[in-house]
Design a protein that fits this description.
By secondary structure, the chain is α+β, with helices and mostly antiparallel strands. It has 39 helices and 35 strands. A hairpin with a 7-residue loop joins strand 9 and strand 10. Helix 3 crosses helix 4. Its EC number is 7.6.2.1.
């Protein structure tokens, strides 16, 4: 605590040697001679830097980050190999796509960082007023230095962390809002240093001679330790302690105070606000991590293929007539080359030949899919808030699919779950219930006064207690009253004749005082600024009023209708209302004098001041008489409770992290259905730890929850039924610090693991009294636990930025508390309720689409390259390509890229209404379900099977020396073209079978791609191109289509290739259907087509250019093959080795 530390500082003889301190010279004035040594200290300037790159390091740093991706690094190596050695394919085929991916990514990341630079410059160039030589000087915020005396006016934000010297208010106080720091929009009171609060002019302040000793910068917003030495005419300085009440933090705003003077003690990146920011690191989604793992697997397959072919080549060439046939003799230099060098060169050549199994185009397509897909969120009209005129924002498109994988949500309370707008509901006095206006059957009774009793008329004694109760509400508050029409305050007085604003650090106090002002008589005028412990002289008697939480008041009362009021308080708490109890006691003059003496002694103590004050209050606040209780509603945001309920049904665990006190936060959790009626609350708070040791409390809680762990771990803690015990955990910031603190033996893992085990078996967790950095610690703790769950953090204030940056996905709420959270988040939404659609609909679709995209790309490239591998067994392992160079280059770029891109943008396997109505469907895709090893292996084996069908189906047809009508036989390029044709049609129709949502765009792209392939092949082989040094494809495609057997083989092989996948879909759907497939079956009559084509569903996230008329429910034909046949010329034999000189065999 603060005061024990101050005591130690003042007591120790070698105070200047306190290593964790800094000395600030107010106004840069040296201390008087002989007072203390002048030590010049260096401190950073006041610049804030949130950007990642500079002009000079952008290119090297960005390239380094991009080539950390396995895929980019791999393609760079392949490109260099193609440049260095003679390979079967051109370096352009790898270099151009790689350059495109690197350039597009660099431009995107550079633009995002430019926006951060722009925001930093706007903040750093803000004008600031400071005192220099007794005059007011204006300069930029970034030029501010530690020790400068700053003047801040009303409604301005503090430019750095300041020690409060004086204000325009006579009592030396000021009011600030810290919404951008701790999320609380209420007004807080700060106090000037006692010896400087009388300095109201620039000249007075400039004459101040003082030094400040304080701790080095640390991120705790609620803790500050220091002292100020004020030098007057006397030699000995006046020493005053400094605490958090004297510290004005950067980011806070001055309210209802004309101006203040303060001295800068922490600037720039050393301010508490900056220390609570996390650095913005590159986030990678679970899908991208899976892609990298699959890439390594395929890289191993690629290396294995190259090794096998290299070994078999030298086995094949071990016989001289095979190594040097008469028509292809080696030169002398070739014979003398080192065997190992030749083998290594051949190995690299095979690597290049087979490298298409890992296509760079997949990464281009994924980047485009993420970028274009993110517009569906910004286009969603249902996520637009008309009240604020704001819609959703997408700050990064790299994490779209991660929205479909969330397992934990960490949410702020104030401004995120609630509107922070209090409304008085009722009060209970002496067991009688009072509400604002008497209500009967939902109608306000005519002639009812401001607050009316709804059960019976009070007697004489009850009227006296009633008057005492309302007097207590008038006095027990910290409200400031300002008569002004144009002020920034939470509420206005209902008195139309006089405009005034009530300002308080607690919004519910404003609601209570407003209700009292509506009462008739003198009570409504008794609004005073006092502490929470009040002494009041009424009818020549001294009364002590006390207001607080029921847990604090009930143990201290000895009289009153305790049972009736307790029952009412408990009922209101269950309904989610914020409750406060009011009590009093009469004092005689002797008791009053004793209380004054006791409090004064405690207040002036420098040693153990807080402890002495607590002991004094314990003696004073006893033997009270209970008057009644109030109930105030902190309005939840619209549909916040429904959203949390839906998220829990989806298998997502919701945690609330807030800086508010426990009772307030718990009431909100009940109101938003995070805690239910049957929830047993477990406390892990400082109060509990003071009664028992942390070790005992943790083990006791662990035993409690593990006793029912069998029932609690059911179905991911959702769908809780009434007969099962449901636990909710409440932990505060101090207890969390103890759990995270390393033990004496240097370990802290045991307590953390025990804490995590308790949390896993609780349906909901509430963390209260959390500092911003502690919120990030909680998120990190869960993120790095053994299950490695996907986490999402959502908040609306700058105090939430740390956890937003720490979580896998960060969402900012565009609220009343500034845009810091929205600016630093990955996504931003206007209201908490929009989270439901963002996860359960958009996230679900994003994940389904991109997982199909990834698996499909690997599948179609296995189909593409495995026939090339098989072909080497029939061409003497000579690295002869099966396909023409044009086909090699355009397969992934043109022939098969657009259908999967459109699928990954448009696919909706079930309707949006279904996903909203049944949140449990979200569980079907949980834990990366569609990119697990079982699914990956299935797609890989499907690709291998199809490749075997393509190659050997065409091979057996060619084995019988198929001839055309003019007697010519098919050659090797015709063989490769036939395999390629079957492959293009198969992989495209496979995607058509997987498509459930058909639009005119899908039809155009799928059938258009097949048509484009046919037209391109006809043109490529039908014209002699003058810029080519070879004409090997001339008339090949036309000749192939002129053959009847070729047509039969194409149709037959496509059917055989697709058959296993169709059978698997039918059997799995009938025997082991998932929840999603059951929903699809139920929705069958709405236009679902058979055999895997699926139905078209209602689109609520379609782009503007996709109108209703584009929805097509038609059934597609199984095969769409129809091309004109024409004669072709002679082509070479299909099974000949590639010649060394590069010329094609004849």
């Amino acid at each position: 605590h603060f005061y024990p530390l101050v005591r130690d500082l003042l007591h120790c003889a070698g105070e200047e040697n306190w290593v964790d301190s800094r000395t600030i010279y107010v106004g840069h004035k040296e201390p008087p001679p002989g007072a203390e040594a002048y030590i010049l200290q260096r401190h950073p300037d006041n610049r804030i830097v949130s950007s990642k790159y500079t002009f000079w390091n952008f290119i090297p740093k960005n390239l380094f980050e991009q080539f950390r991706r396995i895929a980019n690094f791999y393609f760079l190596i392949i490109f260099l190999v193609q440049l260095i050695i003679d390979t079967p394919t051109s370096p352009v085929t790898s270099g151009l796509p790689l350059f495109f991916v690197i350039t597009v990514t660099a431009i995107k990341q550079g633009y995002e960082d430019w926006l951060r630079h722009k925001a930093d410059n706007a903040m750093n160039q803000c004008p600031v007023h400071f005192i220099q030589h007794g005059k007011l000087v204006r300069k930029q915020s970034r030029k501010l230095r530690v020790g400068d005396i700053v003047m801040v006016k009303e409604d301005e934000t503090f430019p750095c962390d300041l020690i409060f010297l004086s204000s325009s208010r006579g009592d030396g106080t000021c009011h600030v809002t810290t919404a951008s720091l701790d999320g609380e929009s209420s007004h807080k009171t700060h106090y000037a240093v006692q010896d400087t609060k009388g300095f109201h002019t620039e000249e007075d302040i400039d004459g101040l001679h003082a030094t400040i000793e304080c701790e080095q910068p640390q991120p705790d917003l609620y803790k500050f330790v220091g002292r100020i030495n004020v030098y007057n005419d006397r030699n000995d300085p006046v020493v005053r302690p400094l605490g958090s009440e004297n510290l004005l933090l950067r980011g806070a705003t001055l309210k209802n105070t004309e101006k203040i003077f303060g001295v800068a003690i922490y600037t720039g990146m050393e301010t508490k606000m900056a220390l609570n920011y996390q650095s913005k690191s590159q986030k990678r989604s679970a899908v991208e991590k899976s892609m990298n793992v699959f890439l390594i697997v395929y890289l191993c397959i690629l290396i294995s293929k190259a090794l096998i072919n290299t070994v078999l080549k030298y086995v094949w060439q071990s016989e001289p007539f095979r190594d040097e046939p008469w028509y292809n003799q080696k030169t002398e230099s070739e014979r003398q080359r080192n065997l190992f060098l030749r083998a290594f060169t051949d190995f690299l050549a095979f690597m290049v030949l087979f490298n298409y199994i890992i296509p760079v185009s997949m990464y281009v397509t994924v980047e485009m899919q993420k970028f274009l897909g993110s517009y569906f969120i910004t286009w969603d009209e249902e996520m637009f808030d008309e009240d604020t005129g704001e819609g959703p924002l997408v700050n990064t498109s790299d994490l779209n699919e991660e929205l479909g994988q969330v397992e934990y949500i960490f949410t702020d309370k104030t401004g995120t779950l609630t509107e922070n707008n209090m409304e008085f509901k009722e009060c209970c006095i002496e067991g009688h219930v009072y509400v604002p206006h008497a209500i009967c059957n939902g109608q306000v009774l005519p002639g009812a006064s401001g607050i009316d009793m709804i059960d019976s008329s009070p007697g004489t004694s009850a009227r006296e207690r009633e008057e005492l109760f309302f007097r207590a509400l008038c006095l027990c508050h910290t409200i400031q009253v300002k008569d002004d029409d144009d002020v920034d305050g939470p509420r206005k007085s209902p008195d139309s004749g006089k405009s005034c604003t009530y300002i308080s650090s607690s919004p519910d106090e404003v609601a209570l005082v407003e209700v009292v002002t509506g009462l008739p008589g003198e009570i409504s005028t008794m609004v005073s600024i006092l502490a929470f412990l009040f002494l009041f002289l009424y009818k020549r008697e001294i009364y002590l009023f006390c207001k607080g939480a029921d847990s604090s008041i009930f143990p201290r009362v000895i009289e009153g209708k305790v049972d009736q009021i307790r029952a009412r308080v408990e009922r209101n708490a269950v309904e989610g209302l914020r409750t406060l109890c009011v009590a009093y006691k009469r004092l005689n003059p002797e008791e009053y004098e004793g209380i004054c003496t006791l409090l004064q002694a405690a207040k002036v103590a420098l040693q153990d001041r807080e402890k002495k004050l607590a002991e004094a209050y314990e003696q004073i606040e006893k033997d009270l008489v209970l008057l009644g209780a109030t109930a105030v509603e902190d309005r939840l945001q619209e549909k916040a409770a429904d959203t949390i309920e839906a998220l829990q049904k989806a298998g997502i665990k919701v945690w609330v992290l807030t800086g508010d006190k426990m009772e307030t936060a718990a009431a909100t959790c009940y109101a938003c259905k995070l805690f239910r009626r049957n929830t047993q609350l477990l406390e892990l708070t400082t109060k509990k730890i003071e009664e028992q040791s942390l070790h005992d409390v943790l083990f006791e809680l662990s035993k409690t929850v593990l006793r029912h762990s069998g029932s609690l771990t059911r179905d991911n803690f959702s769908g809780l039924s009434a007969d099962m015990q449901d636990y909710g955990l409440i932990i505060d910031g101090a207890a969390l610090s103890l759990i995270m603190k390393p033990r004496e033996d240097g370990s802290c893992g045991n307590y953390r693991e025990l804490f995590l085990e308790i949390c896993r078996n609780c349906s909901a967790v509430l963390c209260c009294r959390m500092a911003p950095l502690q919120k990030a610690q909680i998120v990190k703790l869960i993120k790095l636990s053994k299950e490695h769950p996907i986490t999402l953090a959502i908040g609306d204030g700058a105090n939430d930025v740390s956890m937003i940056l720490e979580a896998h996905v960060g969402i900012g709420v565009i609220g009343k508390e500034g845009r810091q959270a929205a600016r630093n988040s990955d996504y931003a939404v206007p209201k908490f309720k929009h989270l439901k659609k963002m996860l359960l609909v958009h996230g679900h679709f994003y994940y389904i689409r991109i997982s199909e995209l990834v698996q499909y790309f690997f599948y179609k490239n296995v189909c593409f390259i495995f026939p090339q591998f098989l072909y080497q067994f029939f061409c003497g392992f000579s690295q002869q390509t099966l396909y023409d160079t044009a086909y090699l280059t355009l397969y992934n770029i043109s022939f098969t890229s657009l259908p999967i891109l459109l699928y990954s943008l448009m696919e909706q396997h079930v309707s949006i209404d279904t996903l909203r109505r049944d949140p449990s469907l979200y569980r079907d895709i949980a834990k990366n379900a569609l990119l697990r090893w079982r699914v990956f292996i299935y797609w890989t084996f499907l690709g291998v099977f199809d490749a075997l069908v393509f190659f050997f189906g065409a091979y057996f047809m060619f084995e019988n020396t198929t001839v055309t009508s003019n007697g010519q036989i098919f050659g090797n390029w015709t063989f490769g073209t036939l395999v390629f044709t079957v492959m293009v049609f198969t992989v495209t129709l496979k995607l058509a079978l997987d498509t459930h949502y058909w639009t005119w765009i899908n039809h155009f792209v799928i059938w258009g791609s097949l048509l484009f392939y046919i037209v391109f092949s006809l043109l490529w082989g039908g014209i002699i191109w003058p810029f080519l040094n070879y004409q090997r494809m001339y008339y090949v495609f036309i000749q192939m289509l002129s053959s009847g057997p070729a047509w039969l083989v194409i149709i037959l092989l496509i059917t055989v290739s697709l058959l296993p996948d169709v059978l698997k879909k039918v059997l799995c759907r009938q025997l082991w259907p998932s929840a999603t497939e059951r929903v699809q079956v139920q929705a069958g009559p709405r236009g679902r087509v058979s055999s895997g084509f699926g139905r078209a569903v209602t689109c609520a996230e379609r782009p503007p250019w996709l109108t209703n008329s584009s929805r097509c429910h038609s059934e597609l034909p199984r095969t769409t093959l129809g091309c004109s046949c024409s004669q072709g010329g002679h082509t070479p034999s299909p099974l000949t080795p590639r010649s060394r000189g590069g010329a094609e065999p004849s």
